[in-house]
Specification:
Order of helices and strands: HEHEEEEHEEHEHEEEHEEHEH
Number of helices: 8
Strand order of the largest sheet: 2-3-1-7-10-8
Mean pLDDT: 94
Number of strands: 14
């Protein structure tokens, strides 16, 4: 009896074990027509699954979480993932539907497509995530003539995302002291991008593309409109400000009657949401401010993998 797996079985195993996750951040959440166009593009290949979406009207920002498999050649090198063409189709739709010069929101951004980050899931490696990040970056730079900056494992020296953003003025609001409007930075970039032109198309801006281990995003609402207080709290919570290691934060206006501490947990298994919540509550109390329970903006890697398995099996039936 022959127990050699068929090509169909091998492909099924690949779909279940060597998975890549992509988080695609778009500078738009209020224009339903634009989002519909992007979401239609996401459906072009049934082997790529949108497992989650998070959008925030105050920030005017949306994030799509997608998953697919990666295939390899006979030597074990990655050669194909359906994720690549799906992401490029969504990027094309975003550039066709959104003009950065008319965008306004309370979250920093430098592009219509602001950030694309790839994470390994299941048995995939960081090298595989970096491979697809660099492939997508080359296509976006060449096809859409948009400057691309690589970061983390996709960058030759592992340059950090927040370092690049600081160099480019990402964190400086340019409208009303706490909003980001249009493109207000020099069109000639101070740092040469890794892909694409050095001159910024004002309607599209620039894009960051990286590969890194899983990062959790956790936001804590503060019941106050005092953005200066929110920024002080954010600074003291962050590793950069001497607070919690591997935690990056922003203090932002969030709607008409509140602010928010937006957090990136770079090693969520080491410094998790509970530690962040407790630190924010302690510091807010010192400012005389009330805090709500924070919330994750995405699912855990385990839940994302589980959702992908369920959705892909539904598509296969």
């Amino acid at each position: 009896m022959d127990f050699t797996p068929s090509s169909k079985d091998k492909k099924k195993t690949t779909k279940q074990s060597i998975l890549l996750c992509c988080k695609l951040y778009i500078s738009e959440s209020r224009n339903r027509v634009a989002l519909d166009s992007i979401e239609q593009a996401a459906k072009l290949d049934p082997e790529t699954v949108v497992v989650n979406k998070f959008d925030d009207r105050a920030y005017n920002r949306a994030r799509y979480t997608l998953v697919s498999y990666v295939a390899h050649d006979s030597t074990g090198c990655p050669i194909f993932s359906p994720l690549q063409q799906t992401i490029l189709a969504m990027v094309e739709a975003a550039y066709g539907a959104i003009n950065l010069e008319t965008h306004l929101g309370a979250h920093p951004r430098l592009g219509v497509v602001d950030d694309i980050v790839f994470h390994p899931l299941a048995q995939a490696s960081l090298d595989e995530a970096a491979w697809i990040a660099k492939a997508v970056a080359a296509e976006i730079g060449n096809r859409f003539q948009v400057p691309v900056y690589l970061y983390a494992a996709a960058h030759p020296t592992g340059k950090a995302l927040d370092t690049i953003r600081r160099e480019l003025g990402y964190y400086r609001p340019n409208f009303m002291g706490n909003q980001w409007a249009g493109w207000a930075l020099p069109e000639l970039l101070p740092e040469k991008p890794d892909q694409g032109p050095t001159l910024v198309p004002r309607s599209r801006g620039i894009v960051m593309i990286g590969a890194r281990p899983w990062v959790a995003t956790y936001n804590v609402p503060i019941l106050s409109t005092d953005v200066s207080a929110a920024k002080r709290i954010a600074q003291m919570v962050s590793a950069r400000g001497g607070g919690l290691p591997t935690v990056q934060t922003l203090g932002l206006v969030h709607g008409e009657d509140s602010t928010e501490i937006a957090c990136m947990l770079l090693e969520p298994n080491q410094i998790g949401a509970d530690r962040v919540q407790n630190r924010v509550e302690m510091l807010a109390a010192q400012e005389g401010l009330d805090v709500e329970k924070g919330y994750f903006t995405d699912c855990s890697p385990e839940m994302i993998t589980e959702r992908y398995m369920k959705l892909i099996s539904t598509h296969s039936d």
